[in-house]
Amino acid sequence: MTEALAHGVGERSDLPIPLFYAYAGAFAALVVSFLALGLLWADSRFRGDRAGRVVPLRLPGRPARIVTLLLALHTTGLLLLGPVEDNAAPHLVYVLFWVGLVPASLLFGPVWRSLSPFRLLPDRPRRALPARLGYWPAAGGLLAFTWTELVAPEPAAPPTLLVFGAGYAAVQLAGTRVYGHAWLERGDPFEAYSTLVGQLSPLGRRADGTRVLRNPFDGLDAVEPAPGLVATVCVLLGSTGYDGFSTAPAWVDALQSGPLGRTALGTLGLLATVAVVALLYGGCLGLAGLIGGTRGLAPRFAHTLVPIALGYLVAHYFSLFVIEGQRTLVLALRLDLVVDQNAVAPETIAIVQVLAIVAGHVAGVVAAHDRSVRLLPEARAVAGQIPLFVLMLAYTLGGLTLLFAA
Amino acid sequence: MSGGARAEEASPHRRARTARPSWLAGMVWRAGMVWLAGVAWLAGTVAGCGPLSETHREPGNSHEVATAPPGSTGGEARAEITVRAGRVSPPPGWVEARRGQRIAITVTSDVPDELHVHGYDRTAELRPGEPVTVRFRADLTGVFEVETHRSGLVLTQLAVR
Lengths: 406, 161
Description:
The complex is a heterodimer. By secondary structure, chain A is mostly helical. Chain A has one domain. Helix content of chain A is 66%, strand content 2%. In chain A, strands 2-4-3 form a 3-stranded antiparallel sheet, with no helix packed on it. In chain A, α11 crosses α14 and α14 packs parallel to α16. Chain B is α+β, with helices and mostly antiparallel strands. Chain B has 2 domains: 50 residues; 85 residues, Sandwich (Immunoglobulin-like). Chain B contains 2 helices and 9 strands. In chain B, a hairpin with a 2-residue loop joins β1 and β2. The longest helix of chain B is centred in the N-terminal third of the chain and has 33 residues. Chain B is globular. The chains are: A mainly alpha, B alpha+beta.
């Protein structure tokens, strides 16, 4: 049984990116931010949910969900009864499902919505979903999952995964029973996650269910502000950030020889990272509101963090997905193949990491610019954006620093 | 850019309000991609031809970390680690190596345990007080944890470039 420190599964982590790459990325982020301030459009361009060309596409929902249900049962069976050595289940959970959800959603839109076995349940709400609940259950669920993955004493051990899986299933069953499928949209952490990432897919899904081909920026613009949305995005950014520094020698030393013990300090580290991300966001958005003379901006800019979080996720999981993805297939299908652990060169990994972080930054800046010129009074739109760009630069430089130093 | 703008003004039938947004967004998107590709290319060429990228954590530059400069002991990267009362000394750091270099990790533990080098999947039985050395050639790149299985301690991380 492997008990790597980070990522739940995986035998290796990435080398630090070369200093030059970090500088090039930081420089790119700075230049793009200032160019965006001066050169981008003065009137909002993105049309959110109205944008896109309708694609007449009906997906067979039921069979796909039944396949997922069978896969989930198979994984549970492996966790309960599978071999101690070379059990495929942790890889199926952490690599195929959790990491695979990102590229799948990026390509095909909100895939977990189409695959979720909970949507096989009848949609008979007993009560209307309270609006103030919003994304809070998803934020909590994602925090619980990332805690399991990054902090739990044995993230890949069957009992750990079974406890998480049982809790997850129980909450979804109860939520669906009371609130119907409306619960799953924002209460199922993985559906909320997949739908948020899927907003950046060219193959989008409108609120009324129509499939459209659209500019990813329009998809991003269609994210509805709701309570807990900021928290959800901050959990994604913060947990990936924590993943970044959790293998740093100083932190490893503190974890295993500090007075608090590994799990307590790890939990504090994870929560503190999420809190720093959220405080930075709250502070900068408050400042933007003051400069722009507009209140209540925080939820209406949360979508701009989605591409930044996505950049972090790609940077942290790219090599894991390529290498452990092979192992997942080898283990799950019992193939007689050897995993090529040198499948991607360190230079390739470094380039993908820096490009992902910088591309996420650029997309975030563009989305924030468009939202600013829509919401802020014309005379203050440029000045009001400055705190937003400072915020994004902080996230981007933070991400690059983690790649470089940890 | 200016040619395009003129053409737009000159054509009276263009549905400017609806057509422009995606057109402009597309331009920005493409320009951004070209620019990013340029940065990536620049990064690739500069990093590929000089020692610029190797200033960070060069073996021997770091402190309190079990590293050995390559070439010092017949091209072998070595680390000597002691585990006493659940404490690792020197504190878990990095062992730096180049791909193809030989690695020797010597561990002395005060309790019976099993040594495991992740990725390379080397294991060795540790008997109390007896130094045990695992030797192998670093043929996988990346950062790999060296840990004890029973006490679950990270002893060091092996960084192979």
